[in-house]
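Could you join me in thinking about how sequence relates to backbone shape in a protein? We need material for that, and I hope you will provide a protein of your own picking. Label the sequence line and the structure token line clearly, so we can match residues to local backbone shapes. Would you write everything just below, so we can both look at the same thing?
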Amino acid sequence: MDQIRITLIEDRPEDAWFDLGLKQLRIGEVRFYRARDPLTGEWLFKVCWDKELYRGLVKAVKCPPGKLFPQLEGDTMVFQRSAAEGLFYDIISVTHADEDGKVRRQAVRSIEEVPAAIARDFEVKSYEEATGRKAPGKYLATLSREGDEKAMITLFLLERAWPLSSVSPEEKTKSVNLLALIKRLEKTSIEELRQLANEQFGIGKEEIDTLLDSLEKENRIKCLEGDYVKAID
């Protein structure tokens, strides 16, 4: 998650947007961000602040290609003022693809269902603790600092995008680490790479070979004669 890069690209002190939940045209601050996520790809987000209703919206404007991520284009997450001062809450809902490849979303009701990255790096509370109100159902919510738009975008990725990834965050981290090692060595034998990757990252021979095959298919590395490998710039 530390490798997610979120960059502000446009700031509009006043702009308008249509709130689908309220079915109203709203006016407030709007900002656009580019997010580069090593697990899922590149995204464009729009963040809207409705000061009158004390709520912020994160909307996916552009998603990575494929069959699943484009279904999230236009998808919105709502952050509302929490009972705790200076914090905003988001009801945790996690995506999944059904047997027909249609992306669906389900609210999380138990701590066991909370994605590990969210449980590790964000404060998770019951709906009642987060809002100070009772509601039917035992929903869980995250808390983030008011105005922390990068945290809001990160939560969108963790709840909506990461569950749809074809590889796990752990597998992707190993792949990123292995590619960085190959770039650092410039040109190396596969045998030497296996030894160094095992020493530095604890990756076994079979897993290294699987990662190398994946990186080659992604056109990130090139295998050379004599069992050598190098990164493609």
User: Anything to note?
Assistant: DSSP finds six helices and 13 strands in the chain. The chain has two domains: 5-164, 169-231. The domain at 169-231 is CATH 1.10.10.10 (Arc Repressor Mutant, subunit A).
